[in-house]
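Please check this.
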Amino acid sequence: MRIGELARRSGVSDRSLRYYEAQGLLASERTPGGQRDFGEWAVDRVIRIQALYAAGLTSKKIARLLPCMRDTDGAPSEIATPRLVEELQAERDRIDRTIADLIRSRDVLDEVISGASSSFPSTLHGEASIAAV
């Protein structure tokens, strides 16, 4: 499939796909006319790359990780190393800490919202008096 089709099917821009290729995260064949041609596997690969970026991993770490992910048949890759597993566990711990921090921040914000909104008789009344001014 051409890059535009991969972009449409994966929800990722052409520019991002070219970047992934430049970083060694994605590979394509070239047509005789020089256009990129991706296999069906590329859709799942791009979705995985996006998920790993969303988790906060860098392109360098993703490049090391992708060959170690489970094959399509579910079998573990033979490339995974104990060191990589340790690094990934550290990344997971970092993500867990970030989630806990975000939950604490949300709880504080909820308290502020609750305290601030209880000082108004009603939101509608507050809006009406602002509109009258």
Remarks:
- The mean pLDDT is 83.
- The helical segments are 3-10, 14-22, 41-54, 59-65, 82-117, 123-132.
- The longest strand covers residues 29-30.
